Amino acid sequence: MSPHETSDPATLRAVAEQVAAEAAEHLRGLPAPRDASGAGAAGAVSTKSSPTDVVTASDASVERFVRDRLAQLRPGEPVYGEEGAGDAATARWVVDPIDGTVNYLYGLPWYAISIAAVDGGATVAGAVAEPAAGRLWSAGRGLGATCDGRPLAVAATTEIGQALIGTGFAYRAERRARQARMVATMLPEVRDVRRAGAAALDLCAVAAGWLDGYLEHGCNWWDWAAGALIAREAGAVLHIAVPPGMSDPADAGGTTGGLGDDVTLAAAPGIAHELAGLARRSGAAQV
User: Fold this and answer.
1) Cross-strand partners of 261
2) Assuming Cys at both sites, which of 5, 13, 81, 154 could form a disulfide with 125, CB separation 3.0 to 4.6 Å?
3) CATH topology for the 9-144 domain
4) CA 62/CA 23 separation, integer angstroms
């Protein structure tokens, strides 16, 4: 099968769902990276961009599993993953083996496996599996979004002051400080702010109406490739930075003017404009 062969979103969605569910089962069978005392096996945890940016042996194991299964089901199609890299410009599949690794490391249940099928950099299908909760979120372009087969729809919120907003923070201290200042400025203008620690699940929460909006700077393509489509297919308005290999910002679902070069914003239509404006006034472009 040619790496550039196109397939319909329904077929790619089914593959993403199958592999994500299988990968979740694979992860559940792996030993925990640390025990109840906080001790971990030698070599089970290391760091990447900063001391707080952790990667576990489980991340690598899950990504190998996903790559192997995709090679079996979709031979010849390039994979771009967080741990194994690859060529972003030619990728058919974008994989985050564990989104929310710090949560996983600490035994918190908010982590996920994200698998997206892309065409020219734009996501056409994707699935997000939650190993702890057993939930499976998915979407196909033009096909809507579901959680465990149930259709999703964003919240009907129309007042920014009543909006519950999700966010996240970068790994480097200096950027976290700028993000904290932005969120502190926004906080009095919204109902409240949540920080769950997994971008893919934050986007799914917008799709389900559990969050009215989500805003974060510094996410990588693999963090949002599947979740953003799920949110959009559920009715969310998106402002997303252009990923590698994508020439048209509109393919990502929105533009990022005044919000920063690497922003991810998803919101219910009734508050999307106000949330973007509030973020700009709160210094999003300087984050």
Assistant:
1) none
2) 13
3) Fructose-1,6-Bisphosphatase; Chain A, domain 1 (3.30.540)
4) 6
